Amino acid sequence: MKHQIYRGDCLIRMKELKENSVDCTISSPPYFNAKKYCGEDNNIGNNKDYNDYLLKINEVIKELYRTTINGGIVCWNTSPVLDDGKRIGIPFDTHQLFIKAGFEFLEDIVWVKPDGAAKLRCGGWIQNKGRPTTWHANINTEYIMIYKKTGIREPKTFEPITMHYSIMPKDLLTCTWHINPETNKRYHDAPFPYELAKRCILLYSYPGDTILDPFCGSGTVMKVAKDLKRNSIGIELSEEYIEFIKEEIGFYQKKIFAQEEYIEK
User: Span 150-166, mean pLDDT?
Assistant: First the structure.
């Protein structure tokens, strides 16, 4: 399997990828203003306003359509955020961009985190003794929006799902997934949970496929792709994150394990 790390801005580096070269993309883009991202001027997490953010995301989506094979899949993890006390529906706004680009909408999966993982928003409602119109939910969910590029891909050899789960998770049969968030935030404020990446890869790709993460972050998608015998491509702007990714996926072991090829660009 081949694992490639591209250094730099995904808006630029994605243009280097060939058309119809990616089988499945799994990514969690910056959530506008929800997290403090690295300070690079060209970081999509740093923007003038929400419209500027959507313009940048739209360019990424258009590149995803170009690079995805016919019948290929994009798994897009986003969530509504708060801005000056108002909620902004990022998943719903970016949904329109995916449809406009030509993707077909397949699924909306709700990722449910434990109650304790949510920030308190209902404090005012409690202080006001439940006064109507003052209630605001503690947000413990995010969306995994699933899109398909038009066309049909040929089936390939695959491993039964039972090879990866001795006991089938009950929620895997539904559109509501109960998965704990990643607790190790040493290198990244919002690391992608291993189990979340695992499910998306198993459900929407075959062994030997190429998995892309244009916002590679801590490299979870690349690591899971490697563990599940897929090729991977990760694009990351932060030098700090890149060094962690290389350690995480075994980049420095490339001379020992010849069956894995590691490329840095």
Answer: 94
